[in-house]
């Protein structure tokens, strides 16, 4: 399949620090994404930032970045490692790039998801109980909105080769480069929905390559390959992994990840679209290769 080839080398803060470099070296990628954040992670990072205003980001990324430098600037990197302090993370990343002689590699930063500075102005109620936010505001540690693909696309349009974000929806790390490369309009909902499916499938790293598989004992998870999505202009995609790696990509592994952390499969909510997963079709098209 011709399209934008995007690999995800990290599914959570604390994931393998070797996987991103292996994927960058052997995945023949256009883009590498690294997904570090969960709601608990954001709370931990918020507490770190309270203790040290320079902290509050996924420091693993700064350990990983030097291993990726040989692949720059040919490869673009998009990550939400910025957590609660994307600018602080960017300062450290910029220093690593400069020290490696890559001062000409542009770095983009996406912020604006942190509501804490303006929380008192937001009249919000609990989704289930209706209880007003004001009743617990004094105990709130962090408050973040999920940003969508638009600001990442803008960074890419401005020439960024590395993009650091705070809290964006996980799938948007993948949707944005597909939208940028294919010139999708941000109101082209069908194509964005296709990109969202691809992003959701690879956002958790090795879960789609065997980590969730009910027959995981049938594959080598010690040497598991991390996922690659090749996204076509129409929003369809193909899921695979680098050759010679462990794990598996088949209809079962992809279907299991498709429904991971999904409330209503007919209405998967993101800042970009509401995606209907009930219309998704999965087809094995080769060894460790599934068309979506």
Provide key terms for this protein.
14% strand; alpha/beta; nine-stranded mixed beta sheet; 292 residues
Main sheet makeup:
9 strands, mixed
Structural class: alpha/beta
* Bulk shape: globular
- Helix count? 8
CA-atom Rg in angstroms: 19 Å
Low-confidence stretches: none
Total strands: the figure is: 11
The string of secondary-structure elements, in order, is EHEHHEHEHEHHEEHEEEE
Care to describe what's here?
With 292 residues, this protein is an alpha/beta fold. It is globular, with a radius of gyration of 19 Å. It has helices at 19-26, 39-51, 60-68, 86-99, 150-157, 172-182, 189-202, 251-258, and strands at 4-8, 31-34, 76-79, 107-110, 162-165, 228-231, 237-240, 268-269, 274-275, 283-286, 289-291. Strand 8 and strand 9 form a beta hairpin. Strands 4-5-3-2-1-6-7-11-10 form a 9-stranded mixed β-sheet, sandwiched between helices. Helices cover 29% and strands 14% of the residues.
């Amino acid at each position: 399949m011709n399209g934008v080839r995007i690999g995800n080398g990290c599914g959570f803060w604390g994931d393998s620090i070797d996987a991103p470099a292996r994927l960058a070296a052997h995945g023949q990628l256009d883009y590498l994404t690294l997904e570090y954040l969960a709601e608990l992670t954001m709370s931990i990072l918020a507490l770190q930032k309270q203790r040290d205003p320079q902290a509050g980001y996924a420091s693993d990324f700064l350990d990983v970045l030097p291993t990726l430098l040989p692949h720059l600037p040919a490869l673009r990197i998009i990550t939400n490692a910025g957590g609660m302090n994307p600018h602080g993370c960017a300062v450290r990343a910029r220093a690593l790039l400069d020290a490696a002689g890559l001062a000409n590699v542009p770095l983009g930063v996406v912020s604006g998801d942190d509501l804490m500075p303006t929380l008192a102005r937001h009249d919000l109620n609990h989704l289930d109980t209706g209880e007003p936010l004001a009743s617990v505001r004094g105990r709130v540690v962090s408050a973040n909105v999920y940003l969508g693909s638009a600001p990442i696309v803008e960074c890419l349009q401005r020439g960024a080769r590395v993009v650091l974000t705070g809290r964006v929806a996980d799938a948007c790390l993948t949707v944005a480069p597909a939208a940028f490369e294919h010139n999708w309009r941000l109101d082209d909902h069908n194509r964005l929905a296709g990109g969202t499916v691809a992003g959701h499938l690879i956002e958790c790293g090795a879960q789609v390559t065997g980590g969730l598989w009910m027959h995981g004992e049938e594959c080598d998870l010690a040497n598991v390959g991390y996922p690659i999505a090749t996204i076509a202009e129409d929003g369809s995609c193909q899921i695979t992994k680098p050759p010679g790696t462990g794990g598996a990509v088949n209809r079962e592994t992809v279907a299991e990840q498709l429904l991971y952390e999904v409330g209503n499969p007919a209405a998967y909510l993101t800042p970009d679209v509401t995606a209907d997963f009930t219309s998704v079709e999965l087809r094995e098209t080769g060894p460790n290769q599934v068309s979506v």
